[in-house]
Write a structure and sequence with these properties.
Blueprint (H helix, E strand, L loop, with lengths): L1 E2 L2 E4 L3 E3 L3 E4 L2 E4 L4 E4 L4 E5 L3 E4 L6 E4 L5 E5 L3 E3 L3 E6 L2 E5 L2 E3 L3 E6 L6 E3 L2 E3 L13 E8 L3 E5 L6 E3 L1 E8 L10 E5 L2 E3 L9 E4 L1
């Protein structure tokens, strides 16, 4: 556990242990990533803020079997291209803020629905270089995810200022009845692109 520290990285950081970032300020260099190893958990909690030094950083990748990202208790992820990139990993997101990211959450090939509740996926102002003069593209991109649950009773999420709120593209060859998406108490605001069109939920 790392508590009340200011940290920085200008390169890929490979997290090969169970790590907790508690009340930390973390500055990430251009294109830097955090990579979570197999069967390890990265917990970002208690107001920990990950953000760019200047140009956008790449984001956090949970791409190995058993890798897990936990984001809670007013944690903030900002200025990333793909803030949370979950490929065959697990995720638990609660009372967190993802802000000014090109894509807040990407989920690919996951049979685990994970948890996304009581969180804010927002873009109150334009992004950092190299995507200046643009707002977020998507709140959540999901590809080949069989079961998708976003929000809960009294624990909905806020999606604001993105071209698309939720973009769910499931494998069309999955058997009928094996795909499901459940949205509960979520709020979508200003879902539009610079061209003036946008989609709150695309299924």
């Amino acid at each position: 556990r790392i508590t009340n520290q200011t940290l920085g990285s200008n390169m890929d950081f490979y997290d090969d242990r169970n790590l907790v970032l508690d009340s930390c300020n973390v500055l990430m260099g251009a294109n830097a990533r955090i990579l979570i190893a197999a069967n390890n958990t990265l917990t970002i909690t208690n107001g920990t803020h990950l953000h760019a030094c200047n140009e956008m950083w790449e984001g956090i990748l949970a791409g190995e079997p058993g890798s897990k990202i936990v984001l809670n208790n007013k944690a903030i992820i900002e200025d990333a291209v793909n803030a949370l990139d979950i490929v065959n990993g697990h995720y638990e997101i609660s009372d967190a803020t993802l802000t000014r990211n090109l894509r807040h959450i990407r989920i690919n090939n996951s049979d685990d629905p994970g948890t996304i509740v009581s969180s804010r996926l927002i873009c109150p102002e334009t992004l950092n270089s190299p995507h200046e003069n643009q707002y977020s593209e998507t709140g959540i991109d999901a590809f080949n995810v069989k079961t998708f649950l976003i929000g809960a009773p009294s624990k909905g999420n806020i999606f604001e200022n993105a071209s698309n709120g939720i973009n769910w593209l499931a494998d069309q060859f999955l058997p009928e009845g094996t795909r499901s998406i459940t949205l509960r108490n979520n709020t979508f605001r200003n879902t539009s692109s610079l061209a003036g069109t946008g989609i709150a939920v695309y299924v």
